[in-house]
Amino acid sequence: MKPDFDKILRPADTARIESAIRHGATRRELLGMLLAGGMGAALAGSVLGSATKAYADTPKKGGSIRAAGYSSGTTDTLDPAKQSLSTDYVRCTSFYNGLTSLDDKLSPQMDLAESFDTKDSVTWTVKLRKGVTFHDGSTFGPDDVVYSLSRHKDPAVGSKAKSLADQIGEVKKSGDNEVTIVLTGPNADLPVILGTFHFLIVKAGTTDFTTANGTGAFKCKEFQPGVHSVAVRNENYWKGTGPYLDQVEFFAIPDENARVNALLSGDVALIGSINPRSTQLIKQAGSFDLLTTTAGNYTDLNMRLDTAPGSDPNFVEAIKLLLDREQIKTAIYRGYAEVANDQPVPPTNRFYNADLPQRAYDPDKAKSLLAKSSLAGTRIPVVASTAADQSIDMAVLLQQSAAQIGLDLDIQKVPADGYWSNYWLKAPICFGNINPRPTADILFSLLYTSNAPWNESHWKSERFDKILVEARKERDDAKRKEMYGELQKMAHEESGVAIPVFISNIDAHSSKLKGLKPMATGGMMGFAFSENVWLEG
């Protein structure tokens, strides 16, 4: 057991050791200082270990970092309602707060709200935190909450969370520090929903999002869509603790090799989403660490059902059967993944349908289906890009499997820049990359309902929409699990979305960057790293 160095060293000696660590003293130099003071070698080594660890684990203010994400475009935004990419999530969580936030167990924690109270899961009374100010010095209050939540329902805003916000029938000020939210139907997940990225709070009346005026840990110094942002510490942050860094410059490097090289060269301190094949290179380089997050992240293959060839259900099923999921897991992700089953709810979710039969790799059956589709011998384009994690490698494996049964897939590799605005949701067959979501309801509402903003295969099912609404109302967890299980089955069987594996996200960072930990809301500490990290030394 290591001794408590504070009980062994005099305060002046402790301060001297910590100062030396802060200024980059080597272990040899630190040992020399202790030995010169008359301490034995064994005890000095043990004390030094305790002192170094204690220093490293203590958050420190100061310093600036540059960090690189993996997705960006001219549609980058500081409007929480319009966030689409991980780059947006990083910036908005730096500049704004929500009524709640989600912890590493996906449980809602109070942020700008002090409490949520309800008797029927329909009418909610929300007490708001006092003494919070926006970056422009104005006071946060009920009007800001009413405005922020209501604007999601306005079609002109173009909120990516409109399908979720449509559950809100009314939100009104009901006291000096209180709002009342009335839902169109019961939903016990409301505090969870309002802790997700899009429901961050903006100042009432805000329409200009060329900059950010939030209550968050950082102020926006500079923002250029598709280029970068510069965030500086909010000295009046209401939490009292953090942020620790003076400044964070954030931008995207879509190419993974370039992203890794930027880290290894010291140009950036943190990079998001690296290829598993890069892990050994980073480990061998020294002075860098990996942050592995197991959540519900996935890269999917999307076949639009409203146009050829996805309009032929035999073709869609054949493609799903040609995905060799075990090979994708081992060959592409080096084991940093778990096999998925063409539906978006991961095994960690309490409503996961474990009874749904796993779709297996079956080229013989795929060949039989293809014969019924009249597409054999037809050259079919499949769009892939480095923008969608490992989609090119996945497309190549699929192409090889397809060739064995006479299906000619033309892999069209397009640039990462502009991929999300030019190809995703538009090309007949392309790949997507979906970040984790905390509830089954949110996943289905955003990605699978007939009016979902990111309905990747353009699948429409009135029955699906109806069951989702009923599941949202159901307060009996057993019945709710049964309903969500049926929705997973429908997505698996009927949609044009193929999900081969759930990916373990791997980020990499300088060993001097401390405070990072896995979060189930996504990589880069649920995209909220900026508020929580500090620099050692």
Largest sheet: 8 strands, mixed
Based on CA atoms alone, the radius of gyration comes out at 25 Å
- Mean pLDDT score: 91
Helix content: 25-40%
The total count of helices amounts to: 19
For the termini, the CA-CA separation is 26 Å
Your description of this structure?
- By secondary structure, the chain is α+β, with helices and mostly antiparallel strands.
- The strands form 6 sheets. Strands 1, 8, 9, 10, 11, 12, 14 and 19 form an 8-stranded mixed β-sheet that branches. Strands 4-5-7-6 form a 4-stranded antiparallel β-sheet, covered by helices on one side. Strands 17-13-18 form a 3-stranded antiparallel β-sheet, covered by helices on one side.
- Strand 6 (168-175) and strand 7 (178-183) form a beta hairpin.
- It is built from 19 helices and 21 strands.
- The model is unreliable at 1-5 (pLDDT under 50).
- Pfam families: SBP_bac_5.
